[in-house]
Design goal:
This protein is mainly α and 163 residues long. It contains 8 helices and 2 strands, in the order αβαβαααααα. The chain has a two-stranded parallel sheet. Helix 2 links the parallel strand 1 and strand 2. Helix 7 crosses helix 8. It is elongated. The relative contact order is 0.15.
């Protein structure tokens, strides 16, 4: 099973990735997953966007959540409603199937509007709710709405199945 290491900022995640990558065993797969923070130009690889590729790193060692992790939440409104419960306003979420194209500020504004009346969890806060919500999402819904998520899931499936 994959192990996820939450690393904070993009710079800290990159630093930790480089350390883990350089000391990994030949049969280990080390992957960097960070927010793109903005739109990704068509045809850009994650390494091109990130600016620096460690020696020996392949294209599939870097993945992006476009434009932020929370965009993936919008792909599964049912999971959001299940997590936040009473007071959740699903109608405040954008009705889009291309979550990678929703600007980061719009993603956060929609989550704030949708959760502003939720009890007892309260309004969405990145640190308080983010990884708990992420764990409830339907990966098929996320992959359908995000080509970048699909790329990550396909890579992980390939690496864990050895194909």
């Amino acid at each position: 099973m994959p192990r996820v290491v939450v690393s904070g900022s993009r710079a800290e995640a990159y630093k930790r990735f480089c350390t883990a990558f350089s000391s990994s065993a030949p049969d280990e797969f080390i992957c960097l997953l960070v927010d793109s923070e903005g739109p990704v130009p068509a045809g850009s690889s994650p390494w091109l966007l990130l600016g620096t590729r460690p020696p020996g790193a392949a294209d599939d060692n870097a993945h992006l959540m476009v434009q932020c992790m929370e965009a993936w939440f919008l792909a599964d409104a049912d999971a959001l409603e299940g997590y936040f419960g009473q007071g959740f306003r699903g109608s405040a979420l954008p009705n889009r199937t291309d979550v990678d194209n929703i600007p980061k500020r719009d993603v956060f504004a929609a989550l704030e509007r949708a959760t502003c009346a939720c009890a007892p969890k309260g309004q969405y806060k990145k640190g308080a709710h983010s990884f708990k919500v992420l764990a409830t999402l339907d990966p098929d819904k996320v992959a359908q709405a995000s080509p970048y998520a699909r790329r990550l899931f396909d890579t992980l499936k390939q690496k864990t199945q050895g194909t």
